[in-house]
Amino acid sequence: MSELLKDAGCRAPNSLCMGTFVPPGKENETVTLTIDGKEVEVPYGTTILQAARKVGIRIPTLCHHDDLCVAGVCRICVVEIEGMKRLEASCS
User: Fold this and answer.
1) Could you give the C-alpha distances from 21 to 3, 12, 39, 58, 92, in angstroms and in order?
2) Cα–Cα distance for residue pair 51/40, rounded to 1 Å
3) How far apart are CA 83 and CA 49, in angstroms?
4) Looking at residue 71, what is its pLDDT?
5) What is the pLDDT of residue 92?
6) Any bridge partners for residue 74, and if so which?
7) Residue 74 confidence (pLDDT)
8) Do the beta carbons of residue 67 and residue 14 sit within 8 Å?
9) C-alpha span between 62 and 46 (Å, rounded)
10) CB 41 within 8 A of CB 31
11) What's the pTM value of the predicted model, to 2 decimals?
């Protein structure tokens, strides 16, 4: 079953999917970002949704579930990212 999910392009960091893609050389790096005025440092490859939860910020979700592969299709969790032209799904 996991091979089928890998072929489907799943990116969720859980036991059923491949895991978050982290480019070679970035495995031990962290990223610092500010969400609603709260600064948070997370490992490279962490989603905005995961980073927000780490600092207690709730972003509504519908299709996201920790036991499923990331789909990012419902668009309930869209967030504004400084410098981006459109809203992005925080779960993916």
Assistant:
1) 16, 9, 23, 24, 11
2) 7
3) 18
4) 81
5) 86
6) none
7) 92
8) yes
9) 19
10) yes
11) 0.74
Q: What is the rounded distance in angstroms from the CA atom of residue 13 to the CA atom of residue 37?
A: 27
- Say which amino acid occupies 87: L
**First CA to last CA distance, the chain:** 22
Q: Write out the H or E segment, with its range, that includes residue 78.
A: strand 78-79
pLDDT in tens, 34-86: 999 999 999 988 999 999 999 999 999 998 887 888 888 899 999 999 999 99
Q: What is the DSSP string of 11-58?
A: --SSTTS------TT-TT-EEEEEETTEEEEEETT--HHHHHHHTT--
